[in-house]
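Workshop exercise sheet. Pairs work together: one partner reads the sequence aloud, the other fills in the structure field after running the prediction. Swap roles for the next sheet.
Pair: D.N. / O.F.
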Amino acid sequence: MPQRVIAIGDVHGCAEALRGLLVSIELRADDTIVMLGDCIDRGPDSRGVIETLLDLREKCRLVPIFGNHEELMLNYLDQRPQPDDWLECGGAATLESYALQNGTWEIPDSHLDFIRGWVDWFESDQHFFVHGSYDPKLALPKQRWNVYRWHSLRTNIPGPHVSGQTALVGHTSQKDGEILDVGHLICIDTYCWGGGWLTAYEPAIGRVWQVDRVGRPRQVTA
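Structure field:
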């Protein structure tokens, strides 16, 4: 049986959805699971998401992509200047998930060290995976990190990449809960935290899995 590469869209703190999606996938030890970033913020249980991913590392090959919300969190904790207030962009929900009984919060070093090790891009033979977008004229190692993490498809959809590979992205939430497929680019941020779905996509065969915020599967046609 061929090894699978499966991308998962923006989880945004929906730990129940992530756990339900992994059950639906029927995970195999030789799978590569690519998380497309923005695993934290907005939803109710960012801590549970990170703990699920730490456990997932022991069960398959896990490739977490660094999203703009992970950047916002680390900048806030490292006291680096940034254009947006992390707490107002969903960070308050993340801190609440790490709350202690005395009313303070603490994010374990193991969680932060894990997130700091995430990557900006990943590629397979026919596809590449980034959080937000890309410059179609630049090779993947030469891309600007801010385009990878921050560029919205609502500004513009980039043309086909010079490599000829198909792009798998998240970041730009599809409020109707449906995958955006323009041929050379596929966006699988299907707005789980806002009432849509959490999507997993196996690009080699076009297989789709979707669950709602509490992990209940949606019946979809491949």
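Discussion prompt: The mean pLDDT is 96. What would you look at next?
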